[in-house]
Amino acid sequence: NVHETIVKCEMFKRGEKVAIGASGGKDSTVLAYLLNTLNKRYDYGVELLLLSIDEGIQGYRDDSLKAVERNRLQYGLPLTTLSYKDLYGWTMDEIVSKIGTKNNCTFCGVFRRQALDRGALMLGANKLVTGHNADDMAETILMNLLRGDIARLQRSATIVTGSDGCLPRAKPLKYTHEKDIVMYAHFKKLDYFSTECIYAPNAYRGYARFVHYE
């Protein structure tokens, strides 16, 4: 139960401005829908806004951002979109054309996290929430175990991070499995983008996902 997770972890404080990392995919769409609904139903007293990052991946991100725009209208939440081009001076397509397809998902992940942090701070948000689910968390823990990255292993198991002075990040869907999110999105007839990133087949996470499901 997402509401129980939010309450038990004392995830939000009344008056906070909470930025939702919105990609247009099922996880962030379900997260935006749930937080918008629960905030009204249980009177969390937080201000919600959508924050999207345009990595500059033609045929993927441009289409998924159209879904986010529809969500903005459906949920009545303000939307801000920042691009790699504006923040860093180049798009992900341009990066891949220079470095090739190896490790580009690792680079993109770092750039995206930084972009979300910068965007949330720019908007004056007190907290950033992402749609990471239980399966994502298991894969991340496996990845860090396989790499022997102890520092990241500890952070990846935490539901709220950033208590050391950084912008706090929270994962309200941490205990919700992917299959339940898909079923919920289907049941509620939510509008989301379901195509995988064109560079995803080369991602190390794919190996961790294979190990996880085996």
UniProtKB/TrEMBL annotation:
Signal peptide: none
InterPro entries tied to this protein: CTU1-like_ATP-bd, Rossmann-like_a/b/a_fold, TilS/TtcA_N, tRNA_thiolation_TtcA_Ctu1
Domain tRNA(Ile)-lysidine/2-thiocytidine synthase N-terminal: 17-196
Binding site for ATP: G21, A22, S23, D27, I53, G131, D136
Stretches assigned to coiled coil: none
Keywords on record: ATP-binding, Nucleotide-binding, Transferase
GO biological process, alphabetically ordered: tRNA wobble position uridine thiolation
A single Gene Ontology CC term: cytosolic tRNA wobble base thiouridylase complex
SUPFAM superfamilies tied to this protein: Adenine nucleotide alpha hydrolases-like
Gene Ontology terms for molecular function: ATP binding; transferase activity; tRNA binding
PANTHER family: ATPASES OF THE PP SUPERFAMILY-RELATED, CYTOPLASMIC TRNA 2-THIOLATION PROTEIN 1
Protein name in the entry: Cytoplasmic tRNA 2-thiolation protein 1
Taxonomy of the source species: Eukaryota, Metazoa, Ecdysozoa, Nematoda, Chromadorea
